[in-house]
Amino acid sequence: MKPFPTPFRPTSGLLLRRVGSLLVSFGLMVATLQASRVKDLTLVGGGRENQIVGYGLVIGLAGDGDSNAQATLRSVSNTLQRFGITVDPTQIKAKNVAAVMVTADIGPFLKNGSRIDITVASMSDAKTLQGGVLLQTPLLGADGRVYAVGQGPIAIGGFLGGAGGAGGATVQKNHPTVGVISSGAIIEREIPARFVNEGLLSLQLHNPDFTSAARMANAINAVYPASALARDAASIEVKLPDDFRGREVAFLADLGQIEVTPDTLARIVINERTGTIVATSTVRLSQVAISLGSLTITVSSNVGVSQPNSFNNSGTTVSVPSTQTSVDEVKGGFTIVNEAPSIERLAAALNALGVSTREMMAIFQTLKRSGALQAELLIN
Asked: Which pLDDT value is given to residue 4?
């Protein structure tokens, strides 16, 4: 076996010249794996987030609201009745109003009176929520109880302008029917959270992995001997030391600062919609030969005109279609990729072929089918 060449470095001038913008679409920025803190890799058991949702009305839309949808009209009527005003829904115009759904996540350990961000999205055919104000909206959990109340002006991060319609033009930036109200909801009901049970607490890995769990338990035991045990790939059970009885928060603060080097699965993720390829540094490739050739077929159709001479009274003007077909085939060549210690050699080989992002996607899929790629391939 030939010795491995000098490892590829992401600042290599050759790579930057050959791929240019390809670095943006293919994650070749390889760095040495660094240790991370326990608090950045785990979630404390009993401290999870919860989802809440509500139905509300956005007003003040300057004619860009719902086009008199029955649900919106009835909602406006019910809202007015709360203020002692009775109006027949059929007599209401809803052009300045939009029915919306409001969603949010309540983080762990939030108390009554805390504020959270909420997302507002149109339910009907409103053109935009630009300039709108959300009326007071109760936000319910899965148990049907109200946990927060949202209200306030909406920021959509874009706009919709122009008259539209026949002969008109519109200009749209971003998505104007979805907006955010920063700190727009007030917590009204605290969700109880208990993170220590009978002297034990649980750490749950964000990315479950048996190796990472074992390493984390060993790192904790190096600081607090015989206190941590990895139960499975996702959870580590930690015993509260006697010195920290009654000071659980202080123990969690110290525990979160312990550094661990997590393991990473060999994985390549391809997003064909955006042309993005991301590969982890643990990807391995067996010795393989890659040949890349491209075939381009172009078919163009043109319509000509055959017109008789000006003194020929019997002739007529006719159209004459014509079609031209051209075939351009680029000659391919084999590039040998030796057994590589990591993704660097594979990246260098593909860059040497001068392939595009879409061609890279095809090569990765073919390598996986050939059995030469020792990595999980995910295609979105």
From this structure: 37
Residue 264 · residue 283 · CB < 8 Å: no
Q: How confident is the model at residue 254 (pLDDT cuts 50, 70, 90)?
A: very high
How far CA 366 is from CA of 14, 28, 122, 286, 356, in Å, comes to 26, 20, 43, 13, 15
Whether residue 341 has pLDDT greater than 50: no
In whole angstroms, what is the distance from residue 104 CA to residue 191 CA?
14
pLDDT of 86-104, one tens digit each?
Answer: 888 888 888 899 999 999 9
Mean pLDDT, the chain, rounded, equals 80
Three-state secondary structure readout of the chain: CCCCCCCCCCCCHHHHHHHCCHHHHEECCCCCCCCEEHHHHEEECCCCCEEEEEEEEEECCCCCCCCCCHHHHHHHHHHHHCCCCCCCHHHCCCCCEEEEEEEEEECCCCCCCCEEEEEEEECCCCCCCCCCEEEEEEEECCCCCEEEEEEEECECCCEEECCCCCCCCCEEECCCCEEEEEEEEEECCCCCCCCCECCEEEEEECCCCHHHHHHHHHHHHHHCCCCEEECCCCEEEEECCHHHCCCHHHHHHHHHCCEECCCCCCEEEEECCCCEEEECCCCEECCEEEECCCEEEEEEEEEEEECCCCCCCCCCCEEEEEEEEEEEECCCCEEEECCECCHHHHHHHHHHHCCCHHHHHHHHHHHHHHCCEECEEEEC
Q: What is the pLDDT of residue 219?
A: 95
The domains of the chain are located at 13-32+267-302+325-379, 50-187, 196-260
Per-residue model confidence (pLDDT) at position 98: 94
